[in-house]
Amino acid sequence: MKQVPGFPLILLLLCAALAVIPVAGATGITMTAAAGDYYFGLGESADVPVAVTSTYDHDIDGTLQFTTTEQLQNTGMVMMSTKNKVYSHTVPPGDSSLTLSAGTSDAEKTVTVNVAYDYTATSAIQVTLPEIRIHFVADQQQQAQGSQAPVTSTSGAGTGSVPSSSSVQIVQQTVSAQQQAGRDGTAQQALQNNQMAQDAGALKEQLRREAEQQETEKTAFEEALSRDPLLASVNESLAAEGFAKVSQASNPSSATTGTFSQEYRNAAGETATIAGSMENGAVPSVTETSAAPVNVTAPLAANATYQSAATQLAGQGFSRNTSTLTYSAGGGATVNLTYQDPQGKRAFVNATTDGKDVTQISVEVEPDAPFDYVPVLAAAAIAVVVLGAAWILYRRFRRPGAPPILPARPPVPEEPFDHRKAARELLNRAEQAYRDGREDDACSHAGRAIRVFLSWEHGGCREMTNTELLAFLPPGTGQAGTIREILDRCSDVEFARGTLGPDEFPRMADAIRRMIDTKR
What we know:
The protein is α+β, with helices and mostly antiparallel strands. The chain folds into 4 domains: 1-28 and 373-414, no CATH class; 34-202, Immunoglobulin-like, CATH 2.60.40.10; 227-365, no CATH class; 419-517. Helices cover 36% and strands 29% of the residues. It is built from 12 helices and 18 strands. Strands 11-12-13-14-15-16-17-18 form an 8-stranded antiparallel beta sheet. A hairpin with a 5-residue loop joins strand 12 and strand 13 (271-278). Helix 2 crosses helix 3 (187-227), helix 8 runs antiparallel to helix 9 (439-457) and helix 9 packs antiparallel against helix 11 (480-494). It is globular, with a radius of gyration of 31 Å. The chain starts with 6 loop residues before the first helix and ends with a helix.
């Protein structure tokens, strides 16, 4: 085949252009353990660290199921004890960790550990870590050769169901004593095996008693849950919106104390989850989470500010994304609603009610992200490569006398986001609100001025939350204490947990302005 002149150079230029195109990674959560097998001495606490990485830009609330299985096999008998523990767990953005504990053991044995994390984004999602084996050994110098390669798992489609609660299972297989004695070869070995069988029988009886006790506590715990007035009220509210309970997971520490979670589903397949704890026979509060637009409590639904905000957000293309409602036994509730537009921009409505009236409400829309230069630069690079390739081909095959074709100029990038200017504007709005007597609005704008300035000052491309910002700042910086104090005071006043003292706000405003005007 005849090769086109200049073809290798053209191919090289095209490959270089493709290399600069960014590859968008899927949003999700990844869990990683350093190895598949871990060895611990007798009496040593078996704690296994698991690294967690989240590419979401906000906290993810979910349910962590931790399952341990241990097997004891002696003459004619196999006993297997499986225990499940269910916890509510929040995964923050970026890197974090959690610790799996298999307890201790005074005897040599192997315990297998399975970990699953269930959460809901636009659908049910699960992260299932491959099986980890924990070996309790008398001499750690005599370790078996197990998997030393890391084990990892990333978000995938989940079942959407609440994980099962604690359980103990026993499996028994019988083999005749004559067969076993013949297989062992000597009478002495048969006697030893008989002693092992007796020990296994005692352990079996102990496990059976533990299982019966756990089942008794679980039954009493769930009966107490069914009588709790707060849980009954939330159940009635969900039932009125077409949701029916499909599963329940409980993790009692006694007959009247423990944690629980319940899953509800409507005819459209949408799910809602409530979770909480019972203390001494009473549930002080429960948290309801749903991606469906569930009821926001009667006081908030009737509130004029909320109605106006919901109408305005809908007119701007926002729709309800997730809802988190925390109900307290005293009748109050905290409502956190997340909205999202087709471009992924989010808005938040946060409110607090005392059961009759709305005591606090705030509406916040994410600021527009600073201009992303990567697609522009990628397009410019591709344009230059394509025009360069066209120029090479033209020079090779042009007719004599034809005028040359000049490459077009790449587009000029837009001016970057000025975070200092944006922070000053927010601070000016805060000072105006304070002069007008609106202390809550003044503190809201002042807190945002700090978050916008520091988020972009430290290389971010979005406004961080208070928690993210305080975790991001180095603890040794001179301003860390001042920033924390101002953010805490602004949050207290903004959410009606305190009031400003005389001249307190002007001092905070002066500190913020000095921070913004100081050049690094």
